[in-house]
């Protein structure tokens, strides 16, 4: 799978991220906290500990949506994290492109249906990219200033 953060995705020159990480996960629930912890750790290692919590929550919500609505048996999903200037991006790619995420109103007491509202509240930008096979949902956090870990 190719995700939205991949600097050479289309083979055309574009701004290359300062930092980039990609990991493929099997579509099992135990991989959601693994991805969340990795994204948080990367934010800290890349000098932005203040963004680690929000980035981890974005990763968790995007991975949960991929697992619930976009994964197919025996097909991996990918979590990409990149830092370009002062923008931290978390992107999750899954193999099911015909099912795009859609925000909906969850009823009181309903367990699901709030993930995209959380993403929209935390992220400065988010969007969906259709791929030849699958889709990528990404969210970005603007980082106010450089910090040291």
Structural features, described:
- The protein is an alpha+beta fold.
- Helices cover 28% and strands 25% of the residues.
- The chain is built from 3 helices and 5 strands, in the order E-H-H-E-E-H-E-E.
- The chain has helices at 31-45, 52-70, 115-122; strands spanning 19-25, 77-84, 87-94, 125-130, 135-142.
- It has a 5-stranded antiparallel β-sheet with strand order 1-2-3-5-4, with helices on one face.
- A hairpin with a 2-residue loop joins strand 2 and strand 3.
Summarize the structure in short:
The chain is of the alpha+beta class. It has helices at about 30-45, 50-70, 115-120; strands at about 20-25, 75-85, 85-95, 125-130, 135-140.
What does the secondary structure layout of this molecule look like, with pairings?
Layout: E1 19-25, H1 31-45, H2 52-70, E2 77-84, E3 87-94, H3 115-122, E4 125-130, E5 135-142
Antiparallel strand pairs: 1-2, 2-3, 3-5, 4-5
Helix pairs in contact: 1-2, 2-3
Largest sheet: 5 strands, antiparallel
Low-confidence stretches: 7-13
- Order of strands across the main sheet: 1-2-3-5-4
Shape: globular
The end-to-end span amounts to 32 Å
Average pLDDT, all residues: 83
Strand content: 15-25%
Helix content bin: 25-40%
Total of DSSP H or I helical runs spanning 4+ residues: 3
Task: Tell me how many strands there are.
Answer: 5
The chain-level structural class is alpha+beta
Compressed to H and E, one letter per element, the order equals: EHHEEHEE
Radius of gyration: 15 Å
Oligomer: single chain
């Amino acid at each position: 799978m190719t995700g939205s953060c991949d600097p050479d995705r289309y083979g055309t020159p574009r701004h290359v991220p300062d930092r980039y990480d990609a990991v493929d996960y099997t579509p099992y629930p135990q991989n959601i906290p693994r991805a969340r912890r990795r994204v948080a750790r990367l934010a800290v290692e890349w000098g932005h500990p203040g963004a680690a919590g929000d980035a981890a929550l974005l990763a968790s919500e995007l991975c949960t949506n991929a697992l619930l609505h976009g994964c197919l048996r025996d097909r991996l999903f990918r979590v990409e994290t990149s830092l370009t200037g002062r923008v931290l991006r978390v992107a999750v790619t899954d193999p099911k492109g015909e099912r795009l995420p859609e925000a909906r109103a969850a009823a009181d007491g309903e367990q699901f249906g709030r993930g995209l509202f959380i993403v929209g509240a935390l992220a400065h930008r988010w969007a969906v990219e259709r791929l030849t096979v699958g889709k990528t949902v990404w969210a970005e956090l603007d980082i106010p200033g450089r910090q040291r870990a």
